[in-house]
Amino acid sequence: MNQDQPVRRTVVKRQIPSRYLSTGERTVRVYLPPSYRDDLQYPVVYCQDGEDFFNFGRIATLSHERIVGEAWEPFVIVGVDVDKKVRTEEYQPGSDRHEAYLAFWMEELVPYIEANFAVRGDLRSRLLAGDSLGGAASLSIALRWPDAFNRILSLSGAYYDTSIRQIQQASDLSNLSVWMTVGLQETAYQTDHGTFNFVELNRMARRLLERKGAYIDYREKAGEHKWGFWQTELPEALGAFLGPEAHM
């Protein structure tokens, strides 16, 4: 191949059958790095709000550019789509739909990905990524299955009371690493169930997680509760886990 010819991105879609989800299946999109080989094994990033991470966060594009440029080692990205009409129930702890989502995640999603794609299954090679309530869902998964997930990328996490209680009820979290960012213009963000100060929510979650022993890499920057802010944060966030100077 001509060295000047761009290496095309590979993103495939799959429908994962589910006996837990009411729809009976869930769409995922999977980014495969250049020169992907079935006989190798790659780190894997699992994203809540998969469609948004791919389309608005451009996670596959920015990762692909850095992998092709040899700034980062190759890895796989799995974006798990969500029905926005039931997103709050599915992502926020405390409901039957959330419990069904957790069961789908560990009993169906992860086994499917590991059976069909060349990804590693150890703690250091798995990363959970989420924005807003997706951050809360990622934390819920990591708290429920600390032997399966202990690294979280959180973009303006919606750590409402149910998430705070989860942290308070947790025991030792010294094996957990969380990269957190929140925008300083997120102090009065309107949701479908109230107006929230996301800066305070993230500060509180950080304090409680650190008290439980978790390692937190935290920042507050000028930004709103939008993908325009989160997209600019993704390179630094992913680099903390997967780049040459990874420290998470």
TrEMBL record:
Superkingdom, natural source: Bacteria
Positions of transmembrane segments: none
InterPro entries per UniProt: AB_hydrolase_fold, Esterase-like, Mycobacterial_A85_antigen
Matching PANTHER family: ENTEROCHELIN ESTERASE-RELATED, IRON(III) ENTEROBACTIN ESTERASE
Name of protein: Esterase family protein
Native organism: Cohnella nanjingensis
